[in-house]
Amino acid sequence: MTLPFEDHFHLGPEELHRLLAVALASGGDFAEIFLEYRVYHFVLMEEDIIKETSESISLGLGVRVCQGEKTGYAFTNDLAAEKTRLAAQSAAAIVDAGAPGRGADLRDERSSLDVYPLLEPAHQTDLGTKIDIVREAYAACQGVDPAVKKVKAALQDQAQYLTIANSEGRLVSDVRPLVKLTCVAIAERGSVREYGFSGGGGRVGLEYFRNVLAPRAVGGDAAREALLLLEARDAPAGEMPVVLSPGHAGVLIHEAVGHLVEADFNRKKTSIFWNKMGERIGSGLVTIYDDPTIPGFRGSYAVDDEGTVPRKTPLVESGLLTGLLQDKLSARLMGQAETGHGRRQDYTDFPIPRMANTFIAPGEDDPEDIVRSVKKGLYADRFTGGQVEDSGKFTFSVSSGYLIEDGRLTAPVKQATLIGSNVDILRKIDRVGHDLAFGQQTGTCGKEGQDVPVTDGCPTVRISRMTVGGRE
Amino acid sequence: MSMPSDSASLRGLAERLVRFARSCGADEAEVGIGDGTEFSVDVRLGEIENLVQAGSRSLGIRVLKDGKTASATSSDLAGETLEDLVRGAVKRTGLAQADACAGLPDPALHRTDLADLDLYDPALAALDARTKIAVAREMERIALDDRRITNSYGASFSTHEGRSILANSNGFLGEYRKTYCSLSLGLQAGEPEAVVEDFWFSSGVHYADLESPETVARTAVARTVRHLHARKLETQRLPVVFEPLVTAGMLGFLFSCVSGMAVYQKATFLAGKLGEPIGNARVTVIDDGLLPRRLGTSPFDSEGVPTRRTVVVDGGILRNFLCNTYAARKLGLVTTGNADGPGVGPNNFYLAPGPHSAGDILRSCDRGLLVVRTLGHGLNPVNGDISQGVFGLFIEKGEIAYPVSEVTISGNLGDVLRNVEMVGRDLEFRGNVSGPTVKVAEMQVAGY
């Protein structure tokens, strides 16, 4: 029987086993081979025409050897025997010469998870269908208002075939789909020019754009954000109550908590949370999970990039720090269970602990009550991203929002960056709505130069005080 | 499945694929190949943490037929894969729409007498792994010897050696080699509940241009400990001084606003402002692809157009947008040799230095905020708005008083360029976008 990966990689279990033996020739605790074949398509419409299409193929092999806290890594995109052997030898150079190790016999395994609900795999669908999707989003965006002067719509899709073999005897393959439709609108009135963005997709097939998210909704949404911003005034400056809208605002939790519970930062004691396991780090209303098993989500996978079957992982429960995002290396060194959060951008990188789909669990408050509870503050509606450092200082940038005055949303406001210190802000979360939602399926998270797809979510949340970096 | 490895056979592959694309029906074709080897070592707390060694290559193809474009890239250089990609791309042109501006550069722009820009350092290529590991280890040790430093993110030494080849159906065939190296170090200081962090780095095309491990270590220590015991500020308007790395961040933002791609897409507040004042007379901004042995230097861009020196802003007047062939045709301008893949990228893009020392600039502030690092995004090219988290040092009576954190600065790039009061003479080319110390008359600072 041919295993699924043999078609793309022309390497069978015997060759992989032999390669693992080369990697362990001078000893080492662990060796792994990561094989990747990725095919990617892109359709771009701007200036009213289908301007360009592109296709990319990425093929390569990475070899990792670990000994204690040390990692040796090498990769090649030439899968000829002498090149893969050289890669294994290069990775093995990390090890202080010792007795050769021996990998366990490889057992072909399959993930029990079915997280890719897929009827019409995009990479096997003709380009005409994809062009129709892009055109629909483009036309809808352009049609909202004559003030929309420029539109850009793009559809990206990929299929990532991967096979992982390691010295523990694990041999596992996965095929991950990913699609993303995005639309940008530039609106202009007089001398004022503003930008709106919308998008969606996930680890789904193209039927998603018929059954779940219509391309015209994406186009219309981008136009409406740009038009709203034409009317918006400058955001206020200073400390004030902030209400986060459900969905997009999950980026706050991604920055304020998610990165700092990645196991590597805790093992190395650089994260402010490293000595706080089991302790209170936020208000009792705050419960946070990362769940890579939500079907169809961008951040989901049947196995992580080390071949581990992931699980929904509690990170914070009722304000207490209870879990970390683990990869194999940190789990082994810390004596903890793996959670399936070892991810990498592609075969040129070794895996590190990463988020997948991170969210605040719903609370009990009525979202409208939360807004009504604020006399003067900011309603943060849409976001462009954020950043955190290990000390817990973090920012996230609001692309559009509203003033809250006497418990009502009033004037729309423009872009502002919010800044805080995570332990302080988590304590100040004093209302959590029951309306959990997830942001647009377009997010990408960067860490140590590696980008991976992620999703964030949250219900309506009130932060009693936070610094808003507006101009008024 | 064998692949070519030496320079001559990679050039041959590029030319062969161009011919193959033409034989499949393409009117124009362009093939670029990158071939490189990389090495990096991370040392943390005295031990090697990661060691990465690899060789890799990639190939990009662009074809046009009847004014319609399609492109492809591959890391698999096997002949049948590439031929399939070319055939597929030529076929896909049929699904795009004709665009009068699309196409290869005017063949008259290509040159064969390219300048020697000193981009390849044989000394770096010859440096062995043992030496690189020792340098990283020494750099971290110097920093950790300082009692104020409590933890390390690790010290890294990375090197890259690469070859770029480009061929097109107008007969252009170009090639250059380039080396790159960098030393970097990240540190923490302070009590567990009040940890601060910072880093320093040095990078260059030549090994001899790197700062010494000792300089990088001592700078990283000084940059880290100066954040200890930071305070938040009251919300107020203040004069703001940017350290050179922060100026470079602002220049990166300015680049995205003068990119010809953004201009024709109306995705920049500077669209339509050519010839107009966009800053005061202290602001001169240049893009120069010809500076010998600089990080942003190359003899030709990704379309094979020779790079050049372009004055973008001259004493406050916006003189040029930076373009590839496509953006130039869209805007009725000429390409400036800034093609970078499908878009436009900086060569060496920098703010020209002024007359002042950094010390003079600080001494000129009765009260002000010296911004030393930014956190997060918050830069919008469409309207020029700025809102960024910052770490800084408060200036009182011309001297550093205390560190500041958890504040934001906000304003608009247009206002910043008009309100530049002093420009430092401390320009250093630490990346492909650079600038000296700059003082801006006033920005909004948000704190408590």
Main β sheet profile of chain A: 7 strands, mixed
Structural class of chain B: alpha+beta
The multimeric state of the shown protein is heterodimer
User: What is the CA-atom radius of gyration of chain A, in angstroms?
Assistant: 24 Å
How many domains in all of chain B?
3
Largest beta sheet: strand ordering of chain B: 3-2-1-4-5-6
Low-confidence stretches of chain A: none
Q: Ranges of chain B with pLDDT <50 over ≥5 residues?
A: none
> What is the count of DSSP helices of chain B, taking H or I runs of 4+ residues?
10
Q: What key phrases describe this protein's structure?
A:
heterodimer; A: 472 residues; alpha+beta; PmbA/TldD fold; 3 domains; seven-stranded mixed sheet; six-stranded mixed sheet; 11 helices; 24 strands; 40% strand; B: 448 residues; six-stranded antiparallel sheet; five-stranded mixed beta barrel; 10 helices; 23% helix; 37% strand
Write the layout of secondary structure elements.
The complex is a heterodimer of chains A (472) and B (448).
Chain A: H1 6-9, H2 13-23, E1 30-46, E2 49-67, E3 70-76, H3 81-92, E4 107-109, H4 127-143, E5 148-166, E6 170-189, E7 192-202, H5 208-211, H6 215-230, E8 237-244, H7 250-258, H8 263-267, E9 288-290, E10 313-317, E11 320-321, H9 328-334, E12 342-343, E13 352-353, E14 357-360, H10 367-372, E15 376-388, E16 393-405, E17 408-413, E18 416-421, H11 422-427, E19 429-432, E20 437-438, E21 444-447, E22 450-453, E23 455-458, E24 461-469
Parallel strand pairs in A: 4-6, 8-15, 14-23
Antiparallel strand pairs in A: 1-2, 1-5, 2-3, 5-6, 6-7, 8-24, 9-10, 9-14, 10-11, 12-13, 15-16, 16-17, 16-18, 18-24, 19-24, 20-23, 21-22
Helix pairs in contact in A: 2-3, 4-6
Chain B: H1 7-23, E1 28-44, E2 47-65, E3 68-74, H2 79-92, H3 122-126, H4 129-144, E4 149-168, E5 173-189, E6 196-204, H5 213-225, E7 236-242, H6 244-258, H7 260-264, E8 285-288, E9 309-314, E10 317-318, H8 325-331, E11 339-340, E12 343-344, E13 349-351, H9 358-363, E14 367-375, E15 379-380, E16 385-396, E17 399-412, H10 413-418, E18 420-423, E19 433-434, E20 438-446
Parallel strand pairs in B: 7-14, 13-19
Antiparallel strand pairs in B: 1-2, 1-4, 2-3, 4-5, 5-6, 7-20, 8-9, 8-13, 9-10, 11-12, 14-16, 15-16, 16-17, 17-20, 18-20
Helix pairs in contact in B: 4-5
